[in-house]
Amino acid sequence: MKIKNWFLDVLKGGSLGLGMIPGVSAGTMALIVGIYNRLIGGIANLKKEFKKSFFSLLPLGIGAVMAAVICMLGVNYGLDYAPFAIISLFAGLIIGSLPVITKEIKGAKISVKSVTIIAIGAVFAAGIGVLSAVAKLNNWGNFEAAFIAGEWWTYIGVFVAGFIAAMACIIPGISGAMLLFVAGLYDPCVHIFVGENSIIHNSSRLVSGIFLTLSLLLGIVAGFILTSKLMKSLLAKHHDGTYLAVFGFIVGSLVSMYVNQSMINDSLVWKYTLVPVWEWVVGIALLIGFAVLFFFLSKLALNKQVNDSKKEETEPANN
User: Fold this and answer.
1) Which residues on adjacent β-strands are paired with residue 270?
2) Closest CA to 262 of 187, 150, 196
3) pLDDT (tens digit, 0 to 9) for every residue of the chain, 319 residues total?
4) Of 37, 61, 204, 242, which is the most buried if we count CB atoms within 10 A?
5) 168: part of which helix (H) or strand (E)?
6) Which of 51, 67, 94 is nearest to 12 (CA)?
């Protein structure tokens, strides 16, 4: 591989790292920059053609990690200084990405069953965020404190977080960071590496931080391997039902984006009560602006997917 192409692949891999922004689907970004099929193919062939697949995925992985670190820093500081504006930006990204999912359920019939599936997905997603907020307000559980203390169950939690993040790279339209955010796991995971209580600034959590990082990496690897196989089976047998559930989950997540334990400070006060008027105005503008922007980016990704499929169909005929 030429050096120029290698660095270009690193930049393209950076699109996957944008998945660290809640609302941005790494899968959708992979479609937009044209690496989705290569990503899925490389993962699927790791066992059969390890060396070839590894070196094909390496620059994409490097770019993804670099972009993820930058995004983590930006999101961390953004949520501290302008929580409503940043959450509204995330919500706009989610709304703008909906065409990726609605395209898959256009042929689904409107019935009691389909509406029920959507409703269950929506209630489940909304419930995750609401319950995490209720838990913190009633001192039933503080994920951030548990992660800093290195409690045993946090290793399972961060494994699940890695699994979810990897899953989002496989399924266009799903944001792994969004799923972590509504579950209250986003801030605890990010703060392993960023912030005053990170392993960089707090040496007392260095050991637990290293093991949490290993758990995260194991979750990512397991997520890539298992999700690619599971989704292939689900989409083959229950295509409409799967995407109806995903659609409902995304709609419900819009509630959880605003209502979750990350939006409650250590004094158990909602951060929104401290929001100045200018931030409400900026937040609404960001929600509308990024919804429109990502709507067109989603359409671009879908058109590229269609064109690539047509190209694959015509190539054998030409040969």
Assistant:
1) 264
2) 187
3) 577 788 888 888 887 887 777 767 777 677 667 777 777 777 777 778 888 888 888 888 898 888 888 888 888 788 888 889 988 988 888 888 888 778 878 777 788 888 999 999 889 888 878 887 887 788 776 677 788 877 888 888 889 878 877 776 666 666 777 777 766 778 788 888 887 888 888 888 888 888 888 998 898 888 877 776 676 677 677 778 878 887 888 888 888 888 887 788 878 888 888 889 999 999 999 999 999 988 888 888 777 767 766 676 666 555 5
4) 242
5) helix 152-170
6) 67
C-alpha to C-alpha distance for 98 and 118, rounded to whole angstroms: 14
CA distance 221 to 228: 11
Quickly list DSSP for 51-109. Answer: HHHHHHHHHHHHHHHHHHHHHHHHHHHHHHH-HHHHHHHHHHHHHHHHHHHHGGGTTS-
Q: Are 216 and 155 in contact (CB under 8 A)?
A: no
H/E element holding 46? none
β-strand partners of 264? 270
Q: Provide the residue count of the chain.
A: 319
Inter-residue contact 57 to 7 (CB < 8 Å): no
Q: For the chain, what is the radius of gyration of the CA atoms?
A: 20
Residues 6+ apart with CB under 8 A from 246: 101, 121, 171, 173, 174
Q: Cα dist. 303→26, 31, 180 in Å?
A: 17, 10, 29
pTM: 0.72
Q: Which pair of structure tokens corresponds to residue 145?
A: 């404190």
- Pairwise CA distance, residues 39 & 45, whole Å: 10
Q: In the block, which residue shows the tokens 């819009």?
A: 254
Q: Are the C-beta atoms of residues 181 and 257 closer than 8 Å to each other?
A: yes
| Cα–Cα–Cα angle for 68, 165, 296, rounded to 5 degrees | 75
CA distance 213 to 216: 5
* Residue 236 tokens, joined: 């083959």
